[in-house]
Design goal:
Blueprint lengths: L2 H18 L7 H12 L4 H8 L17 E5 L1 H5 L2 H10 L5 E7 L26 H11 L2 E7 L4 H6 L6 E2 L2 E2 L14 H17 L3 E5 L7 H4 L17 H19 L6 E7 L15 H5 L4 E5 L18 H17 L6 E2 L2 E3 L16 H12 L6 E4 L14
Parallel strand pairs: 1-2, 1-11, 2-3, 3-6, 6-7, 7-8, 8-9, 10-11
Antiparallel strand pairs: 4-5
Length: 399
Amino acid sequence: MTKWKLIIMTLMSILLLNTLAPIYSSGEEELVRAHKKFKTSIKLLDSEQQIKRFTYDSGLEFTYPDAVRGIYVTGNSAGGSRFDSLVDLVDQTDLNAMVIDVKEDHGNITFNLEEGSPFASITKNYIEDPEAMMKILEEKEIYPIARIVVFKDTVLANERPDLSFTKNGKVWENGGEESFVNPFEKEVWEYNIAIAEEAAKLGFQEIQFDYVRFPEGFETRDEELDYTLGDYEDSKHDNVQRRVEAITDFIAYSREALSAYDVDVSVDIFGYAATIPEAPGIGQNFSKISENVDVISSMIYPSHWTSHFGIDMPDKEPYRLVMEYAKLENELLDTLDNPPTSRPWIQDFEAPWLYDGPVQQYGKAEVEAQIKALSENGIDEYLIWNAGNTYTENVDYTP
């Protein structure tokens, strides 16, 4: 058994024992028997059958807001002096939610887990007391969403090259010196779901999966990278459809595996994925992903679009860009039998890389323009991104 399989099994075993303890009150012997029974298999379906016997209760109480209006919060901000000011921002405005990094962009967990946790080697103590943080959010009625970066994971890729993409015997890196793990490998799925369970145990009401995709431009380097296909080895699909199948399956798998925790599952997705049948390299199909989540969060930052919707420079026209995107997304979601809640990511930052001269500034007017465009299309939920967590003051969040 590999180190990482042992990690997953150990964590799930601990989780089951902790949860069953109040149920099996007849003594230690019953607990031991339950533990032995659970250890007979770590396969997904077996795990699900065990998990479905209970519903986890974190002990915290949160109410879903009238409409989620949230900001992004890094682990450093959540665990540092800036947390108080961000709490004040949400508390004193019409904002009502925070998306907090639990597993960040490099693959580290942002807080220490209980002693003996199998994830000890990948924890960074950015948030020294996560329970106290969650208690503050409960008291302030701030809706907590856990962001988990899934397949961009330099830490796991370097620890387990067999779960990653390699080139000439070395773990492949993109232009930003970041590495990805392989969405075809179900061991990677289980690894991330186990981390999501830790977030749910803390009291997070929603698990937001980010980077649920293959590396950008994968269709151009597919043949030059070495990687395994896992259970998709015998798939009759072409490579594009195999990638779509793996990404879609992971999301459906995760939602079912987390069902005992009574958490919503959301996914961040590129905005342009809604404009094409499927993104050929990264494996994202907007409609298929939407069918398997509670919330879909398209990243529609105007700065991230090239000329589109007849707009030459979308970064300069935030209202028009968001308006056109929202119309398109509504049309797509209307075709689904059970569409998810739409909660796009919008922009509160500048994009100097787009300009040779003066940069388009994003302030009160630009943020409100995006919110207004969403509202005019019946989309009342949104999340605001600023990587440094510096948000524009005096914004009307319900214009």
